[in-house]
Amino acid sequence: MTDLTENRILVIGASALDVVSRVEGELRPGTSNPARIRASFGGVARNVAENLARLGQPVSLLSVIGKDRIGEDVLAHTGQAGVDVSHIYATDKYPTGFYMGILDGDGYRQFAFDDMRVMQELTDVYLLYHADLFEQAAMVFVDANLSASALAAVFGLAKQHKVPVCADPTSGSLALGLMPYLRQLKMITPNSMEAGILTGQPFDPADSLAAIDAARYLVNQGVETVFITLAEFGVCYASSETTGHIPALRTSIVDSTGAGDALTAAVMFALVNGIDLDDAARLGLSAAALTLRHYGAVYPDLSLENLYNELAL
Known about the structure:
Elements: E1 9-12, E2 16-23, E3 35-42, H1 44-54, E4 59-62, E5 64-66, H2 69-80, E6 89-91, E7 97-103, E8 109-115, H3 124-129, H4 131-136, E9 139-143, H5 148-160, E10 165-168, E11 185-188, H6 192-199, H7 208-220, E12 225-229, E13 235-239, E14 243-246, H8 259-272, H9 277-292, H10 304-312
Parallel strand pairs: 1-4, 1-9, 2-7, 5-6, 9-10, 10-11, 11-12
Antiparallel strand pairs: 2-3, 7-8, 12-13, 13-14
């Protein structure tokens, strides 16, 4: 592995408060449903940044929060986790981002809602102002919550400074925003639904062969490395040199929120530190398994040692 101090990752995208409800019993419309409800800090980019910091990776976050108590708490928690939050912008135009998820009794997401109006303030001007962070970065990560002009600025600055970019499509409705930039991506980590949208060929996550075909398609479109998450069916991956599928680790599930972000962060950690693709996939699944057993979007005791310990179980 290379020296972590030389590999600062620049993470760009959403920060939010998550409120997640896991229903106890059958979900019934039109009435109050008994549930276990928790609040924690979220946002795809923020989750990825916190996971990276807990793995010991130097990481800076470019994001926007509201000038409210939630924003203050997001900033404080993320900074305490080890993320450089000194460049996050606080606006009084919109409240801090908010995500609400409804999980079934098995911990899988059934419905989700978000209010991410604050992301309108993550502008191309804001990104250009922080161009020096691109110059200093070993890798850039971006989630698809950004506007079209902000995404263009990210990829333009990354190209100018010759920095590899990794991306998460974030949701089915946002995935297509990354289509113009596939040839600039070092890595993309869609779930099966997002991969189906990006390829135009929907598939069942249980069909690993179809998932590998989708990953190969995205490689042929110019992406260097593709990891497609398949929930309880594991992960498949492809590059110009190799393809593979690894089943998910056996684990209990209390909350699926953030598991994909944990996988993305662990894979990025592996790639930026010279770990090969197969081991990167295994570390990603290990991070996801640890997160699935935790009430919250980020497993607080995440470490490289714990990732390898999880694989040894």
